[in-house]
Amino acid sequence: MVVMSPSGDIAAQQRDLIVVSVLLMLLIIVPVLFLTLYFAWHYRHSNTKARYEPNWHHSTRLEVVIWSAPLAIIIVLGAITWISTHKLDPYRPLDRLDAERPIPADAKPLEVEVVALDWKWLFFYPEYGVATVNEMAAPVDRPITFKITASSVMNSFYVPALAGMIYAMPGMETKLHAVINKEGVFDGLSANYSGAGFSHMRFKFHGVTNEGFDGWIARVKQTGTALNRDTYLKLEKPSEREPVRYYATVEDGLYSRVLNMCATPGKMCMNEMMHIDMMGGAGVESHENREKLKYDNRHAGEAGHGQQTAPGATVPATGVPARSEAPAAGTEGNAATPDHGSHQPPAEPQAGESNPAPAQLNNNGSSQP
């Protein structure tokens, strides 16, 4: 029943979408159910006054009614669904507090970072530097921006009175924008089976006044302990029916480490690993660069097929053999020149003559301009 009587504007809009959709579909379902009963009664065997037309097979008027009514309903339902899908997108920032009040220009959303653990919920309040387990609070009529992730398996964050459910996945971050419009204590739960302790993975959401929220933050800071990486690693271990816990201080960057799956000391963070991959790898060429290198080597090798390497010449980094150079005078018989061939430099051009083409080595080692 809380879905049909929510306390948050997003959940109220989702409730309205459910009601409108059901009413539109009932426009078809109710007449069909009524006509089914009417035909069974009217055309009963004992009713001899009913028209009996065993050879009847078509009515244009009836076909128009049968097809046009459902088509019109589908068009209207599709339009409403399309509009609501964009308007109620969980990543879309709010544009109103409720149906009668827009978001104030000076309103600052409350940011809450959510981590689904086995089998409990961890909430970070980065603006206030505190964290809690299995309890959260938010002021009435203040927009809330949720950033949601998980530590191990996929889960689903759901406060029925506030907004629809949104998935929590390890190594990924989903978002949800919502607002609570009424004071009260509301149930939050895991809406996706995640293991043995799933049924007890619940928390309380407190909708309070601004003064009440300030008092709640003060209580967390007064009674809470410190949440650092070691404390988190102990909390991360699977446990059931975890009591409410307060943390007065939170280690800087802890949520980011949880999101990037590197809370364990010495473990590389996912964002660092992705950056290294994007830059081509840690000292190793990326796949694209390696493929380009193979292509260049192959084509350079085809162009230089049969050419010799001069003594002492080194092979370039690309793997293409160095081009042969003409041996210096007195080096005939050098191992770089084949025994059956000779290499003579071209004659110097005479005055008025153009410089001939440079000598090239044939496959048999002979020189030819």
Structure explained in plain terms:
- The protein has 369 residues and is α+β, with helices and mostly antiparallel strands.
- The protein contains 7 helices and 16 strands.
- Helices cover 31% and strands 20% of the residues.
- The strands form 4 sheets. Strands 10-7-3-4-5-14-13 form a 7-stranded mixed beta sheet.
- A hairpin with a 5-residue loop joins strand 15 and strand 16.
- Helix 1 (9-42) runs antiparallel to helix 2.
- Mean pLDDT is 83; it is low at 306-369.
- It holds the Pfam family COX_ARM.
- This is Ubiquinol oxidase polypeptide II.
- Residues 301-369 are annotated as: Disordered.
Question: How would you sum up this structure in a few lines?
Answer:
This protein has 369 residues and is an alpha+beta fold. It is built from 7 helices and 16 strands.
Secondary structure topology:
Layout: H1 9-42, H2 60-87, E1 96-98, E2 101-102, E3 110-117, E4 120-125, E5 130-133, E6 135-139, E7 144-150, E8 155-158, E9 166-168, E10 174-178, E11 184-190, E12 202-208, H3 210-223, E13 225-227, H4 229-236, E14 245-250, H5 254-259, H6 270-278, H7 287-303, E15 360-361, E16 367-368
Parallel strand pairs: 3-7, 6-12, 13-14
Antiparallel strand pairs: 1-2, 3-4, 4-5, 5-14, 7-10, 8-9, 8-11, 11-12, 15-16
Pfam families: COX2, COX_ARM
Region (Disordered): 301-369
GO molecular function, one term: oxidoreductase activity
